[in-house]
Amino acid sequence: MAMKVDLSLRQPEAKDGSAIQQLLKEAGGLDVNSAYSYMLLGHYFKDTCLLAESGGTPVGYVSAFRIPGDERTLFVWQVAVHPTRRGEGLARRMLAELLRNPACADVSLIEATVSPSNKASHALFQSFARGIKAELQIQDGYPAAWFPDGHEEERLYRIGPITTFA
Ligand code: 9YT
Fold first, then answer.
1. Atom from ligand 1 closest to the CA of residue 79
2. Which 3 state secondary structure label does DSSP give 142?
3. pTM of the entire structure?
4. CA–CA distance from 147 to each of 24, 34, 153 (Å)?
5. Residue of the nearest CA to atom 2 in ligand 1?
6. Closest atom, ligand 1, to C-alpha of 112
7. Host H or E run for residue 63
8. Minimum CA distance residue for ligand 1 atom 5
9. Is residue 106 scored above 60 in pLDDT?
């Protein structure tokens, strides 16, 4: 087995957009959005996004934003981990790091949508909620019928109240 180079976590920048899109392609199971959308996130939402790199290559990524008009809620858009770096707790580490960021100091609720086949995100949010003794509610989100192309439904996950990272 190849030696694993240490990980570093940092905020993404606009210029990381193409490499992040490539990570999403390799990670599988998530929507591969345009490189441009990852550039926008790195440009305008960098405070609430996180990139994990190994040897300068992205191996983990979390995108999130504070909901306009409801700034205490952090919407976690995508949590992606490269197949070669699964099972190391990287997703959890990125989420915790994000919440520790001063930009998230007064966040008290996490929302995300997760499709039924996305077992990794389901397990992540379930164990994350348990770890901080918060409640996890799973509600209807976006039904499959709203998507054009055989996309699964997206169920709405809500985790709160969050106090541990305050
Ligand atoms: C938390 C997370 O990664 N959700 C995925 C939402 C959606 N299926 C997407 O953007 O891939």
1. 3
2. strand
3. 0.95
4. 19, 17, 8
5. 78
6. 1
7. strand 57-67
8. 78
9. yes
